């Protein structure tokens, strides 16, 4: 044990008689409070981890890591095989449909392809993408987009479907309404000859284009169909619904209408007049279901169709969508 006198001497570094404490004396004072050297060695050896246990933990960690890598490689290989097989299957199916069903720019062939269907939609809609062809060449992308619009219009008119709505997110087709109408008319003439269907092209909040047809140019026994085409964009979706809500709110504040007058039927009628009516079938010419801001109110009961692992406008996708619609059961919540 260390006494009080030795403790005071250690802290003050002075002897009781005033002499300074030498280093050897301080070391002797410290040794009295330190544990024995043999006990310290035994404690260190007993508390230190055993080399054998540490090696086992290292080996187990490496083993678990290898197992995880093997499982990851197996899952990745299986998933890659599945994707490749699905892609190959769809490529073969697309090729078969392309060979069996090709329009040859002949309306009779298209009518023959849809003749066996139990029913046809009266209003179809398609979603097209301006940048699906060439993201770096705006002129080429616009030209290809117009060509796709013309072909879809020709297929729709040949199938006997009277209403077509074309959605393009940016709305660039609205800026070339006259040129688009001219291109569609030329494509219809390449299908029908000198007596193409009468086409009406319109866009929300813009003046529609519907040139009158002289009855003298038609033969007596010919009744070519009439096609109504509507061009819409993302501005005709939620923005139109917001504008309609503001209009109803202003009318309610001015006491022109009451809350009981704002019904679902009224909203549906106003949206149909402002944009379009609800289509029976929506066709996506892409591998994924991406609506890209399509007006949501017009898709409550619409049948949506797309083909996996396929990109681009094709006649066989259009025909398969009509077959899918013909087989669909409209239960309407029942």
Automatic annotation (TrEMBL):
Cofactors that this protein relies on: Mg(2+)
Parts of the chain that traverse the membrane: 63-83
Region (Disordered), start-end ranges: 1-26
Any one GO MF annotation of this record: ditrans,polycis-polyprenyl diphosphate synthase [(2E,6E)-farnesyl diphosphate specific] activity
Top EC class for this record: transferase
SUPFAM superfamilies recorded: Undecaprenyl diphosphate synthase
Gene Ontology cellular-component annotations: dehydrodolichyl diphosphate synthase complex; endoplasmic reticulum membrane
Reactions that this protein is recorded to catalyse: n isopentenyl diphosphate + (2E,6E)-farnesyl diphosphate = a di-trans,poly-cis-polyprenyl diphosphate + n diphosphate
Enzyme Commission number(s): 2.5.1.87
Pathway in which the depicted protein is active: Protein modification; protein glycosylation
The keyword Endoplasmic reticulum belongs to this UniProt entry's keyword annotation: yes
Gene3D superfamilies found in the cross-reference section: Decaprenyl diphosphate synthase-like
Compartments where found: Endoplasmic reticulum membrane
Similarity annotation: Belongs to the UPP synthase family.
Name of the molecule in the record: ditrans,polycis-polyprenyl diphosphate synthase [(2E,6E)-farnesyldiphosphate specific]
């Amino acid at each position: 044990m260390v006494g009080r006198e030795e403790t005071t001497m250690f802290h003050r570094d002075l002897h009781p008689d005033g002499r300074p404490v030498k280093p050897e004396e301080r070391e002797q004072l410290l040794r009295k409070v330190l544990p024995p050297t043999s006990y310290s060695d035994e404690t260190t050896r007993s508390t230190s981890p055993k080399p054998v246990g540490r090696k086992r933990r290292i080996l187990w960690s490496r083993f678990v890591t290898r197992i995880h890598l093997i499982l990851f490689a197996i899952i990745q290989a299986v998933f890659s095989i599945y994707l490749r097989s699905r892609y190959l299957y769809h490529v073969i199916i697309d090729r078969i449909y392309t060979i069996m069903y090709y329009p040859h720019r002949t309306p009779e062939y298209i009518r023959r392809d849809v003749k066996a269907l139990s029913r046809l939609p009266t209003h179809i809609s398609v979603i097209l993408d301006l940048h699906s062809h060439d993201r770096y060449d705006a002129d080429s992308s616009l030209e290809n987009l117009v060509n796709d619009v013309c072909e879809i219009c020709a297929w729709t008119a040949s199938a006997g479907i009277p209403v077509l709505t074309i959605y393009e997110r940016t709305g660039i087709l609205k800026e070339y309404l006259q040129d688009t109408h001219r291109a569609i008319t030329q494509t219809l003439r390449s299908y029908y000859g000198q007596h193409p269907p009468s086409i009406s092209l319109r866009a929300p909040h813009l003046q529609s284009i519907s040139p009158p047809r002289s009855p003298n140019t038609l033969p007596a026994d010919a009744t070519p169909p009439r096609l109504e085409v509507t061009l819409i964009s993302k501005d005709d979706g939620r923005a139109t619904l917001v504008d309609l809500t503001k209009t109803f709110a202003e009318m309610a504040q001015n006491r022109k209408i009451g809350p009981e007058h704002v019904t679902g039927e009224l909203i549906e009628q106003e949206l149909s007049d402002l944009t379009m009516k609800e289509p029976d079938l929506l066709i996506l010419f892409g591998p994924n279901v991406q609506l890209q801001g399509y007006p949501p109110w017009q898709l409550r009961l619409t049948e949506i169709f797309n083909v996996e692992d396929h990109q681009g406008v094709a006649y066989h996708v259009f025909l398969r969508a009509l077959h899918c619609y013909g087989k669909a059961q409209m239960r309407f919540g029942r």
